[in-house]
Amino acid sequence: MTLYSDILLSGLVLGGMYALTALGLTLQYGVARIMNLSYGEFLVAASFGALFLYTGASVNPIVGLLLVVPLSFGAHWLLYQIVLTPLVRRAKHQGMLEVDSILATFGVLFVVQGVMLVLFGGQLYSYTYLSIPISVLGSTLAVNRLLALAFALIIGGALYLFLTRTRSGTALRAIAVNPTAAQLSGIDIRAASALAFAAGGAIVGAAGVLISMFLTFSAASGVGFTMKALIVVIMGGVGSMAGALVAGLMLGIAETAVSRLIDPGLTIAVTYALFLAALLWRPTGLFGRPAR
User: Fold this and answer.
1) Distance between CA atoms of 247 and 232, rounded to whole angstroms?
2) Kind of pairing, strands 133-136 and 139-142?
3) Which long-range contacts (CB under 8 A, 24 or more apart) does 165-169 make?
4) CA distance to 33, 50, 239, per residue, from 23 (Å)
5) In 147-218, at which residue ranges do the beta strands (DSSP E only) sit?
6) Radius of gyration over alpha carbons of the chain, in Å?
7) pLDDT at residue 202, rounded to an integer
8) How far is CA 136 from CA 12, 13, 133, 224, in A?
9) Is the torsion defined by CA of 153, 282, 96, 191 positive or negative?
10) How far apart are the first and last CA of the chain?
11) What is the mean pLDDT of residues 103-112?
12) 51 to each of 16, 59, 64, 66, 202, how far by Cα in Å?
């Protein structure tokens, strides 16, 4: 029984990180219609920021969130204004914007990754922060993992309240459902899209800090995080927060179970198997709406 409770708790922690990471990409693609392939690189950059603050300035990662998150928000807002806004203006239709944004952010991926490789090299990094084992429901789990899960829940809850209880959040949801109708209602589509893209950047910055507390990372590991986020977003349903949460938890628990019970080398296989099964069963995602 201890083994299965350990799998469940560890899977929930990992799945919570997947869900939090995917929430930012859900905002960026669901509202701004930008498929950001450089997403994982910014997550790794935030992880390096947390590492530098902790080892170089003795700032613990939780306090570091107060610095990294606003910086990530600002960096993504500038990226949208400088690189993506020209693409939005010249796009004649949604398909053209998606293709152009994929190519542009693919280039940004290599720029950010290249800078990190020059600064940090290709080796793996990690640091020790609250890696104190405690017993939870008969299983042993490190404090840093539980702390990361708690803050992931807090950030996800704050995002939900923002989207459902504020005028700006309502505007973003309206754009995600029908951009044309939202514009006819007087919503500034470009300003709201910039806000959504930057907010998604703030979330990925927070995810990078939290993940760095218990996972190793390198300058070249961003692509893996991007792929996981894309899988969670598509599997859960594009633009659906509930879908991102459920899909993230499913992947986290499934990967942990396969790693503990069968072979750690099969975690990638089970991820893509679940992804393909979900798409065959629900082509629009678990919580996606069929196009009309």
Assistant:
1) 5
2) antiparallel
3) 168/192, 168/195
4) 14, 20, 9
5) none
6) 19
7) 93
8) 13, 13, 10, 30
9) negative
10) 47
11) 91
12) 21, 9, 9, 14, 17
pTM greater than 0.85: yes
CA atoms within 13 A on the CB side of 70: 4
Q: What is the pLDDT of residues 210-258, one digit of tens each?
A: 999 888 899 988 888 898 888 888 888 777 778 888 888 888 888 888 8
Give the DSSP per-residue string, 219-239: TT-HHHHHHHHHHHHHHH-TT
Contacts of 216 (CB under 8 A, 6+ apart): 124, 125, 126
Residues near 106 by Cβ (< 8 Å), separated by ≥ 6? 37, 38
Q: What is the DSSP letter of 217?
A: B
pLDDT digits (tens, 9 = 90+) for 117-164: 999 988 899 888 877 777 776 667 778 888 888 888 888 888 888 888
Q: For 40-96, write each residue's pLDDT tens digit.
A: 999 999 999 999 999 888 888 989 999 999 999 999 999 999 988 888 888 777 777
Q: So where are the chain's domains?
A: 2-281
pLDDT of amino acid 292: 45
Burial class from Cβ neighbours inside 10 Å (0-12, 13-18, 19+) for residue 227 reads middle
At residue 262, the 3 state secondary structure works out as: coil
Contact 176, 28 (CB under 8 A): no
Which residues share a beta bridge with 125?
217
Tokens at 25, concatenated: 């990409």
| DSSP code per residue over 17-71 | HHHHHHHHHHHHHHTT----TTHHHHHHHHHHHHHHHHHHH---HHHHHHHHHHH
Name the CATH topology of 2-281.
ABC transporter involved in vitamin B12 uptake, BtuC (1.10.3470)
Q: Which is more confidently placed, 199 or 142?
A: 199
